[in-house]
Design brief:
This protein has 155 residues and is an alpha+beta fold. The chain has a single domain, classed as 3-Layer(aba) Sandwich (Trna Endonuclease, Chain: A, domain 1). It has 5 helices and 4 strands. It has a 4-stranded mixed β-sheet with strand order 1-2-3-4, with helices on both faces. Helix 4 links the parallel strand 3 and strand 4. It is globular.
Amino acid sequence: MNLTKKQLSELMPMHSLPVKKREKSTTTESKVQSKVSKWLRHNHPLLYFQTDFAAGLHLPINIATIRASQAPDMKVLDITILKARKPYHGLVIELKKDGESPFLKDGITLKSNNHLRSQNQSIEILRGDGYYATFSVGFDETILVIERYLSLPIW
C-alpha cells in the first residue's frame, strides 16, 4: 500500500516523516578530469592532450600569483586535445561535474553566472579560431564528445 506523505502524517501524527535527502554528488570536477585523463592515457596512449590541472586547487599565494601572471586574459579550459580532425584544429573541453550543467533546463540558454559567461566566451573565441570547443557534463558525456571528435576524418 503506497501512502502519500499527507496520508502517512495523518495516520502517524506523533511521528515525523523521514525526509529523503537528495544525495549530493561526491564527484568533483577535479575527479572527473582525473578519470578522463586516465581514460585518455589508457585508450589513446599516443594522443597529445593537456589539462588545466591547477583549476580548483587552493594554491599558496606566491604560486597563484605566478600562475595568474602567466595565464591569458580569457579562461583556460579544462582539457585540450591537440589532434586535428576535419574541419577542426583540435578539441577543447570545459568540464562540469555530473549534474552541474552550465545551461538552463532548455539545454540552450547559459545560466546567469559570470564564471560560466567567461568560460563560454573562451569557447566562442576558440570556435572562431577553428577548434571544436564545448562544455561537457560528467565523465560519460565527456568520453562521448572525445570519441565522436576522434572519429571525424583526419586532415
